[in-house]
Amino acid sequence: MSEVVALTVAYDGAPFAGFARQDGPETVQGRLERALATILRTPVATVGAGRTDAGVHALGQVVSFDATGLEPQDAVLARSLNALAGPEIAVGAVRRALEGFSARHDAIAREYRYRIVTAGTPPVFLARVAWHTARELDADAMRAAAGVLVGEHDFRSFCVAESAEGKHTVRRIDAVELAMADDLGEPHLVVRVVGNAFLHSMVRVIVGSLVEVGRGARPSDWLAEALAARDRAVAGPTAPAHGLTLWKVEYPDEVWSSSPAAPAGD
Question: Are 239 and 113 contained in the same domain?
Fold first, then answer.
């Protein structure tokens, strides 16, 4: 039986033209595949759990590829990939899945987190990973508005219009939660969105719409109208890419054939 190798990958999205390979621009998938080809001495095609846009980060992206039989031990493979693909990309773990596994199609939940700094003073340490709105937001109003998004709905209003043409746009959202956090002394609002799958820029449009409510430009019940309209022009602006992080991806336990292996030490 042929196994599938699954990598848990973190990356700083700033220097990349998104996750998906392209002809010309540097992408996360392109750099990983070049590193794998160097290690395994053969071309390798990978599948990512999420096709993050240019500038979007990841902490728990999952990338899979069919085992070739040429791989070193999982921990050694992770260390080698970090040496070749870093420093903007880091493989945190390698594990094996059963034949036929796909990082994209077998995922049962994806979690994204979006950071917003509302203080008047611009962030220093979070500048690359948070949207600085420079004004306070009404988080309670944003929570009230977010409730309508939970469940299975047609999210055509909350994605890039061109990407939705002729496409099925119904998705399931399991949670939209807002909470304050503090990293390196810089307080910020975190919007946590969990769902089975997402449309192009869907989380960023949700966040941009919530911020419209938080700053008082729209009432809390406006998101229900935007959702029902199935028209991108009705929803709010798209939040900047750099505030978004693909936090983690979940799979059924039965897809795995091994436990995660962290990078080996020297």
Answer: yes
Quickly state the pLDDT bin for 8 (edges 50, 70, 90). very high
The answer to whether residues 241 and 57 touch, using CB atoms and an 8 Å cutoff, is no
The total number of structural domains that make up the chain: 2
- Start-end of H helices in 49-123: 74-85
pTM: 0.95
12 classed as catalytic: no
pLDDT tens sequence across 36-93? 999 999 999 999 999 999 999 999 999 999 998 889 999 999 999 999 998 999 999 9
Residue 51 neighbours by CB distance under 10 Å: 16
Q: What is the CA radius of gyration of the chain?
A: 19
Is residue 27 domain-resident? yes
The boundaries of the domain holding residue 64 are 4-106
Q: Which helix (H) or strand (E) holds 39?
A: helix 28-40
Mapped onto helix, strand or coil, the DSSP state of residue 210 is helix
- Choose the catalytic residue: 12, 53, 74, 106: 53
